[in-house]
Amino acid sequence: MVVFPKEIVTEDFILRAVIHKCYAPKLVTLVSKNIKEFKYIPMTATLITLESANTHIDYHKEAWKKGNGYYYFIFDYNNKLMGYVGLKIRYGNKTGEVSYFLDKNQTGKGVIAKALLLLEEMFFDAGGHRLEIYANVENKKSVAVARRLNYRFDGILRQAEFFDGKFCDVAVFSKLKDDD
């Protein structure tokens, strides 16, 4: 079994495990600054207080301990929090679900794509079979990430998410270990 490292240094950014509460203020700042851009990501709506950010980090720290989730903050080399990428694993099905968000000033640079490719490699090396991305159909940037990384469109979960006072459709994308 491949061990997911707590820190991954690339030439473009650093991934650090979401396990330390010292990052809570940076998370609140990032989400508050990008609340409009993150509107399609349900979990971010609550990450605007230190209490909720600490709870979020505690949840992810527990997932690391149990081995069913590996979540990273994305930092630049000036220790500025740029975003987040995560992997939730369902071992019974050898399936994982990736999630992500990125500061509006960092989009278009390939950061999320590179971070997701790292998670993909570790997941598939660890024996995973299928990765999934769920995206609100109105979240064009997230849908574009899935398509750019060659995730296949599986279909629509009709009215699967309650967002902005109404039920919304969610697009499902997947990539298999053996996909080209």
Task: Spell out the blueprint of helices and strands.
Elements: E1 7-9, E2 14-17, H1 24-33, H2 50-66, E3 69-75, E4 81-90, E5 95-102, H3 111-125, E6 130-136, H4 140-148, E7 152-163, E8 166-176
Parallel strand pairs: 5-6
Antiparallel strand pairs: 1-2, 2-3, 3-4, 4-5, 6-8, 7-8
Q: Could you provide a short overview of the structure?
A:
By secondary structure, the chain is α+β, with helices and mostly antiparallel strands.
Model description:
By secondary structure, this protein is an alpha+beta fold. It has helices at residues 24-33, 50-66, 111-125, 140-148, and strands spanning 7-9, 14-17, 69-75, 81-90, 95-102, 130-136, 152-163, 166-176. It has a single domain, classed as Aminopeptidase. The chain has an 8-stranded mixed sheet with strand order 1-2-3-4-5-6-8-7, with helices on both faces. Strand 1 (7-9) and strand 2 (14-17) form a beta hairpin. The model has no long low-confidence stretch (mean pLDDT 94).
Query: How many H/I helices?
Result: 4
Structural class: alpha+beta
CATH class: Alpha Beta
Which fold name corresponds to the CATH topology?
Answer: Aminopeptidase
Which percent range describes the beta-strand content?
A: 25-35%
Report the order of strands and helices: EEHHEEEHEHEE
- Overall form: globular
Contiguous low-pLDDT stretches (5 residues minimum) are: none
Number of domains: 1
Strand order of the main beta sheet, please? 1-2-3-4-5-6-8-7
Per DSSP E runs of 2 or more residues, the count of β-strands stands at 8
Distance between the termini: 23 Å
Find the CATH superfamily. Gcn5-related N-acetyltransferase (GNAT)
**Largest beta-sheet details:** 8 strands, mixed
Q: What does the average pLDDT come to?
A: 94
The name of the CATH architecture is 3-Layer(aba) Sandwich
